[in-house]
Amino acid sequence: MLQVNQVTRRFGAKAAVDRISFAVDRPAFVGIIGRSGAGKSTFLRMMNRLTDASEGEILVDGRNVLALVGQEKRQWQRQCAMIFQQFNLVPRMDVCSNVLHGILNGRSLAATLFNLWSEAEITRALGILDRLGIAEQAPKRAEALSGGQQQRVAIARALMQDPKVILADEPIASLDPMNAQLVMDTLRRIHDEDGRMVIANLHTLDTARRYCDRVIGMRDGRIVFDGTPTQLTTGVARDIYGADASFNEAATSTSIEQPDRAYADAMLG
Ligand SMILES: Nc1ncnc2c1ncn2[C@@H]1O[C@H](COP(=O)(O)OP(=O)(O)OP(=O)(O)O)[C@@H](O)[C@H]1O
Ligand SMILES: [Mg+2]
Fold first, then answer.
1. Three-state SS for 5?
2. CB of 15 closer than 6 A to ligand 1?
3. What is the pLDDT of residues 60-76, one digit of tens each?
4. How far, in Å, CA of 152 to CA of 132, rounded?
5. Residue from 9, 4, 8 nearest 24 by CA
6. What span, in angstroms and rounded, lies between the C-alpha atoms of 30 and 227?
7. Which residues surround ligand 2, an ion (CB under 5 A)?
8. What are the residue boundaries of the ABC transporter domain, all occurrences included (predicted)?
9. Fold of the 2-268 domain
10. Which residue CA neighbors atom 2 of ligand 1 most closely?
11. Over the stretch 113-165, which tens digit does the pLDDT of each residue have?
């Protein structure tokens, strides 16, 4: 279903992503891990065409999405919804309108300017919010919600696009452990129930192990690990994160028992 062939992105002389290749034969839940600067975000941004690749191709069902232009490119961008660490909601706007913004691309300028949503669109947005357990938040301003609720609104907005692929760039990096779990459970449920592919950049090992079918480890723009969560041993993790003998797995954990958050932050940037 997804085939990444020798994809490279250079910024000046430096390759942020350096000839990476991997293939996924079904709509799996894929995690990409690696320390800060490894190239994780750059890869996701190439995938949904926010950034152009310098070389290579990304085939989705046999079609190279890196080569799409104009209408076809916009169509692809609708098919791969993006979720960000900082939620990227419109803070002063109500939750339901934020969700409806997921279909902005497909609408006329006038309809957008005057916030003219059809009854069917509003019903659908409310249905998605209900599915994610936050229907009662619909009339509130987005900024009035907790981080975990805001990220679920962002997931609802993504679902409004009815995407084939959900790209999540550190979706839980700004959340406390309980909300992080809630958001990851939501993503996993959408994957299981709808069969949508999820590709999530994660910076904690335990999350990758717990939620992903497949984990890709990046270091300095290259893929240094590609396997299942069980193959992701501490030794492998040490290699991915490029840490020395003092590498401590707790430093990449989101668990509540985590001993030293400051150390984790310092280590992972
Ligand atoms: N627009 C840009 N211009 C120049 N260099 C860039 C640009 N975007 C990314 N880079 C560089 O590319 C490399 C990879 O960055 P990227 O943001 O993809 O890493 P990352 O793995 O997502 O890191 P993090 O975990 O901190 O989000 C870094 O060295 C970064 O400085
Ligand atoms: Mg990043």
1. strand
2. no
3. 999 999 999 999 999 99
4. 7
5. 4
6. 10
7. 41
8. 2-245
9. Rossmann fold (3.40.50)
10. 11
11. 666 788 999 999 999 999 999 999 999 999 999 999 999 999 999 999 999 99
